[in-house]
Design a protein that fits this description.
alpha+beta; 5-stranded mixed sheet
């Protein structure tokens, strides 16, 4: 098996990868609903994602195995409002269950290397879909700096 990770244009690739976006959303939704947090049906604001991607404010990484998509990541880039530093926020990092054999770690390393070349000062991630991922990210050098709390209305 040959894995490839590349930046792709969301508008071009989304139709082929929509099933992966839906799979990720359902995994995340199932976990959160298990915690008593109601999550609405999948209805992405695709036009906003595409606009952000086309303007450079959203990076869209696609992971392929022998040409077939098996994962993706969407990372927002912005300047910190307090000091102007370029920072990155993970929106989604997803690998299909059959390929969770270190591929996700390779994807994150690729993202971090790319962000470094872009001059990013910090990258923020939130392991929402599977909390065990946080342990892997900590071993990769991520540090806990805050706690995310959710209030359900």
């Amino acid at each position: 098996m040959t894995y490839q990770i590349a930046l792709e244009r969301l508008a071009d690739s989304y139709p082929e990868l929509e099933h992966l976006h839906r799979a990720h959303y359902e995994e995340m939704r199932t976990r959160l609903e298990g915690e008593g947090i109601e999550v609405s049906d999948y209805a992405p604001r695709l036009d906003q994602y595409i606009q952000a991607n086309d303007s450079g404010g959203l990076l869209y990484y696609v992971v392929r195995c022998d040409g077939e998509p098996i994962g993706h990541a969407t990372i927002y880039l912005t300047n910190d409002m307090h000091n102007g530093d370029l920072i990155a926020y993970e929106d989604t990092i997803y690998i299909t269950p059959a390929h969770r054999n270190g591929t996700g770690k390779t994807l994150v390393k690729t993202i971090l290397a790319d962000l470094r070349t872009r001059g990013a000062k910090r990258a923020y991630v939130t392991p929402v879909t599977d909390l065990r991922v946080g342990k892997i990210w900590k071993r990769m050098g991520f540090k806990p700096v805050a706690e995310v709390l959710t209030y359900n209305f």
